[in-house]
Design a protein that fits this description.
The complex is a heterotrimer of chains A (363), B (253) and C (292). By secondary structure, chain A is an all-alpha fold. Chain A has one domain: ABC transporter involved in vitamin B12 uptake, BtuC, CATH 1.10.3470. Chain A has 14 helices and two strands. In chain A, helix 5 runs antiparallel to helix 10, helix 8 packs antiparallel against helix 10 and helix 9 crosses helix 10. Chain B has 253 residues and is α/β, with parallel strands linked by helices. Chain B has a single domain, classed as P-loop containing nucleotide triphosphate hydrolases (Rossmann fold). Chain B contains eleven helices and ten strands. Chain B has a six-stranded mixed β-sheet, with helices on both faces. By secondary structure, chain C is mainly α. Chain C has one domain: ABC transporter involved in vitamin B12 uptake, BtuC (Orthogonal Bundle). Chain C is 73% helix and 3% strand. A two-stranded antiparallel sheet of chain C has the order 1-2. In chain C, helix 1 packs across helix 9. Classes of the chains: A mainly alpha (363), B alpha/beta (253), C mainly alpha (292). Chains A and C meet through helix 5, helix 6, helix 9, helix 11 and helix 13 of A and helix 4, helix 9 and helix 11 of C.
Chain lengths: 363, 253, 292
Amino acid sequence: MSARLRGYAIFAAVALLVLVVAPAVLPPFRLDELAKYLCFAIAALGIGLAWGQGGMLTLGQGVFFGLGGYAMAMYLKLHDAGGDLPDFMTWSGVEKLPALWKPFADPAFAIAMVVVLPVAIATLLGLLVFRQRVRGAYFAILTQALAAAFTILLVGRQGLTGGTNGLTNFYDFFGRDPEADGTQRLTYFVTAGVLGVLYLAARQLVKSRFGRLLVAVRDGEDRVRFLGYNPATVKTVAFAVSAGMAGIAGALFVPVVGIISPSLLGVVPSLELVVAVAVGGRYALAGAVLGAVVMNYAKTSFSEQWAGGWLYLEGALFILVMTLAPKGAVGLYEQARDALARRRRTPEPAAPAPQQETQEVPA
Amino acid sequence: MSEEKDGALLEIRGLRVVFDGFTAIGGVDLTVGRGELRFLIGPNGAGKTTLIDVVTGLTRPAAGSVAFAGTELTGLREHRIVRLGIGRTFQTSVVFEELTVLENLDLAAGFRRPLRSLLRQRRGVSDAVASALDTIGLGALAERPAGVLSHGQRQWLEIGMLIAQRPKLLLLDEPVAGMSRDERERTGELLTEIAADHTVVVVEHDMEFLRRYASQVTVLHEGRVLVEGDVAAVQADPRVQEVYLGRTKKEAA
Amino acid sequence: MEPLLNQLPIGLSIGAVLLLIALGLTFTFGQMGVINMAHGEFIMAGSYTAYMLQSRAGGEAVIVALPVAFAVAGALGWLLERLAVRHFYGRPLDTLLLTWGVSLVLQQAARDIFGAPNVQVVAPSWLTGRVTLLGGSLPYARLFIMGLAAACVVGVWAYLNRSRQGRRMRAVMQNRELAAVSGVATGRVDQLTFFIGSGLAGVAGVALTLIGPVGPSIGTYYIVDAFLVVVAGGLGQLRGAVIAAVALGMLNSFAEFWTDASLAKVIVFVVIVAFLQVRPQGLFVLRSRRLT
């Protein structure tokens, strides 16, 4: 079977599993959980693009996830309030709807903002820092600082953002009861569908000339500059796309889970997303998706048993992956496959091993 | 080749480069005519690579001007200079190891494409890429990742990436450093072939290579132009011998 | 004008805390290129060391706690370097994630050992009280921290510039390969660097107990700002770290004064990004001609 055909077969099998098998066998409660993991997988896909392909370690994806989530939640709150103030505003003594909120009463505007806000902020930040050749660790630290500042801002502006509690208690999701099994099934299918479409789009991007250019920028930014490209533009585009994906993920998260709050998008949740991508395999988009689903599943089921233990396990797993398998699960799978293939045709001279074993993303 | 009527392609006037108080280049004038093959030689620290760095925008000069076909280059960003038609290689060759040979060339050739057209997948091989691949003779390795190439092959790929960009001026920084005898031979042929229809400036240490392939030579020493002329004249010049062999001989005499 | 002046000593004292934390980072991040996310947990280790000593021997034990916390945190750092980080040199982003894993484990360990709620450390009697400075009222404890930060800076400076080991450290920082072929045992230097850098985090941890209760996640509150100090100051630049820490402390305190705590962090972030437009590599830069 050719690599291309095998790819299609795997994609079809996964689609079958997600769209047919899972809804048939999982109880509604578990299906809703799976939908949550798929939301994280969408954000992880963006990280796979920015970090795995582009070498930009972004530790602030929670910010973009949050922007998307809040944009969606603001619409839902206004819709529920039906012309009055949203409930939390009355509790914190706000008397007039803040100007920032007004346009979000329009669902089209809110949905547009889900993508526009993260993309705009990522573009601005990207242009400013990449133009000045701020990269590697510096970039990682800056994005982390952004995540920290963003959560502090959200918590501090109680009347505007709902503070620590965030935005929750939605009663009407585009004409449906968000608690009903039917709605939950629907949001599950929408999330899975969006993930599938975005995955295919991201894969197309990676295979395009732009994708090759992105890898070139990752491995030799200065060399790319002397080929007549501006690496800052390339990186900004990739970063903005990843931010847009995080925004979409955040928007879907709101109907699936029923809440968006600062604790979901600070420094730690942002890092956890990156961790999931690393565990799954950062250099493959499928690895990012797989990592996000598996790690979040593990987190949920482990925390149900022994809350503190999860942190030990996550930490330990992470140390092990970084030390023994920096390419994650996908890397291990590829190694095993190559080893198997080599054993099958021993008489032939061994093909030169892929060179990138010791290769690393430059800082 | 370098008659006045052809006009100068690269004109450097009164160039000074200072690194934290150290004068790397102290007033260099250099003119390279269209179609010329010019060698830049000189002992370590003479300022050869610095000169190329200034032309390509990697280093900013303290004073002086660098004009390329009438356009002032100082102050332009690196990728802008490349877009004007200047390509360079580096002493340590950098090719993109994860991309195939073909993808490396295609990436180089596509630098003028608008961003939107980059979003499409590559189908087939463009003329510029095909002819570059042919010139450097790596056709058999086209689909292999560049990471498997030998040192010499990497240098050739880099040169191929340059010619795929169809530049007006090529700057090669020590193209035969670290190469085997055969590889040097092959590189020399490649250079002759390229020089037939490009303007090329080569920084080189290797004197044998110089003797075989150079015509016009500029000797730099301690940040200044020492001598300029054809190979035979430069080699015969006592000042050049002094610089390369040391002063002891003359002082003893 | 007067309330504005009040912010000055407050800003200075925030800067002093940041400086104490960032000082260790200029070693491990600035010099070795290791982004040690567990640095915050070494602070925590220092804090709990002070807590243990002072709850047994009283507040005066703070003087003993300083060197002990330095040794405890330093030993943890040394262990981290030996067991994990040294396999990761040249891969700064991977180290970041690796050490974050370590930081998770250490935080949970602290929760299991000392309990999740914050603990209050007994302060020594001679540090209770306030002093009026430039029109602002400042607790003695804050003043003590400023002195401690100044002392640490002087100590680090003297070590780097006056001791043989310190000079070796600088040699490795400027050119690792050259230092190695010149006979400097770079592995040893790395171990020592990590020990000192982490030890300084321990000292910072003791200082934090003087200004408030401490808990398992105390490190996470300070680590992001401390990294910003190193970024703004320039990698491995002692004077850069000092200036950046004080400036950031001031900026924080004045931004909070003019707006409020929730906007202050956003303002700090915007100012840093703006600053990087002028000085993308921080205040002070080690120049080199190398590409990439």
